[in-house]
Amino acid sequence: MSGIRQARLSCGVEVPVLGQGTWNMGDSRAAHATELKALRLGLDLGMTLIDTAEMYGDGASERLVGEAIVGRRDEVFLVSKVLPSNASRPGVARACRDSLKRLGTDRLDLYLLHWRGGIALGETIDAFEILRREGLILQWGVSNFDVDDMAEFVGRARPGGCLVNQVLYNLEHRGIEHDMIQYGVEQNVRLMAYSPVGQGGPLLRHPVLNAVGARHGCSAAQVALAWTIRHRGVISIPKAATEAHVRENAAAAALTLAPEDLAELDAAFTPPRRKQPLAML
Ligand code: NAP
């Protein structure tokens, strides 16, 4: 039994608040064995939610995930995403079956529209519902939807239909704190924070993160992760292709930031004072 706190989705299923992202994984033959080990270690450590997408490496990420979950499918909460260009009724049906083939499974736990494109939202919802009736997906949701798009989407769906909105959220991008987090709580839509460690960039070298980490005997990345999951409604999906990073990330679930840590982080990374358009990568 892992020590990672669980979050209950509106469908009643519990998932760990820390999962595993897989963008840019599966592309390199040289890194293949290391990446496979990293994902499997993440499962061993309780990060059993895995996020992938048909877009990542043109299916290479899904193929890698498929390999990582061989013999362990039932342990995993598997998330993939359909491209907006495939979000029509026939497009979703085809894209989902292709994803399932690459993943070597008969079902996705959660299927997300990667971002809003030109296809009518109602058509994509219908396509998701057909997949659900066929048992190819268990639940569906969206990604990169701002509050107005969410309201439109949720308004067209059956109650409780849209489970998750996956959005950019880290200390450098706090815009969703103004409105989206509250909206998610009110509508029972969980937020899934992507790029939570700022893609391993300057965020992790920030002196305040390092100072807070030093007080807890933790790394800056662990502070960044613990910060994203301090909200009950947020699940975080760091990507780590190395075992050392995976171990560090799983251990971040045990870090509770104190009020003085949060105040110091707020002073360095100002919370939003007004509406900001949703940031995305
Ligand atoms: P991220 O998870 O913030 O950062 C990944 C980078 O940080 C990698 O270079 C990784 O290195 C490094 N890293 C991970 N853990 C670390 C640690 N403990 N210490 C130091 N460095 C660490 O960025 P992301 O990959 O953009 O976002 C996470 C996931 O969210 C993606 O993989 C994807 O599944 C999803 N995502 C979704 C969207 C969307 O539009 N829906 C957009 C972006 C991302 P190594 O790999 O070398 O270990």
Helix-strand pattern: EEHEHEHEHEHEHEHHEHH
Overall shape: it is: globular
CATH class: Alpha Beta
Q: Give a short account of the largest sheet.
A: 7 strands, parallel
Instruction: Tell me which CATH architecture applies here.
Output: Alpha-Beta Barrel
The count of strands amounts to 9
Q: For the residues shown, what is the average pLDDT?
A: 97
The portion of residues assigned to helices is 25-40%
Strand line-up of the largest beta sheet: 3-4-5-6-7-8-9
The stretches of 5 or more residues where confidence is low (pLDDT under 50) are none
What is the strand and helix layout of this fold?
Blueprint: E1 6-8, E2 14-16, H1 32-44, E3 49-51, H2 60-68, E4 77-82, H3 89-103, E5 108-113, H4 121-134, E6 137-143, H5 147-156, E7 162-168, H6 180-187, E8 190-194, H7 207-216, H8 220-228, E9 234-236, H9 243-251, H10 259-268
Parallel strand pairs: 3-4, 4-5, 5-6, 6-7, 7-8, 8-9
Antiparallel strand pairs: 1-2
This protein binds NADP nicotinamide-adenine-dinucleotide phosphate (NAP).
The site of NADP nicotinamide-adenine-dinucleotide phosphate (NAP) has 28 residues, from helix 9.
